[in-house]
UniProtKB/TrEMBL annotation:
It comes from the Bacteria. It comes from Cryptosporangium phraense. InterPro entries: DUF4272. This is DUF4272 domain-containing protein.
Amino acid sequence: MIRAATMADLAELGFPALPDGYPLIWEQGDSVALRPTEELLGRCAVLNAVLAGVFGAPAELTCGWLERNGLVEAVTGPEWAFLSERKGSGDLYGLHVEALWAFAWVLGVGEDLDPGRYCGEGLAAWLPDIGADESFVDWQARAGARPRPAVEVAALLDLHYCLDWGHVQALMNDEPTPGVTLPYVIGQRRWALEWAVTFRGPYHPEPPRWDEVDLAS
C-alpha cells in the first residue's frame, strides 16, 4: 500500500517510474518506531547551532550553548570541527535547513512535507534562540512537539527514498533533474527521515549516528 501511494506521487511530481521490484528499505514483519522525542529535538538543536555557525555566529556562542545545555555528545565530530574551527564547507552545512524542515514535520510542527516546495516559513522562530541563550529545556517546553505516527513517517521516507533514486538516474543519464525543487531538498529530507525512523528486524543493525546514515543505496 505504501509503495502504491509512492508510485502515484512519483507520477504526479514528474519523476520516472521505478523499475519492477524496486525494494523497500524494510522487510515484511519489521517493526517501526521513531527515535525518542528528546533525541529528535536534540538533533534539531544541534543543526540549529550549525546553521548559526554558517551565518557567522562565533564558536563562543554556538559551542558554548551546546556545552551549557548538555548537547555536546549529540554533535558529530565534523560538526564540532566546523563550529569550533570552521573546518568544512559552510555552503554544505547550510543545506541542513531542509533536514530541519523534515524534522519539524516529523515532530508535528510543520504542516506538510511537500517535495514540490522549499522549507516553510516560521522555522527559524520555532528553533531555540541561541542568541538569547534560550535553554534546551525551555525550548522543549515551547517547541510543542507532537510526533507523527511512525508508520506515517516511514511512508514519507519511502517517497523520498524513491525521489532520490529519480534524481540519481537523471544525473547518471545526463538528463534534467525531475521535479520542481533542487535535488538537495530531497536528499536532506531523506537524511532526516532515515535518521528519525528506526526499524527492528533480522536485517537491520543498530540505528546509526547522524553522520553514519547511508544515503548511497
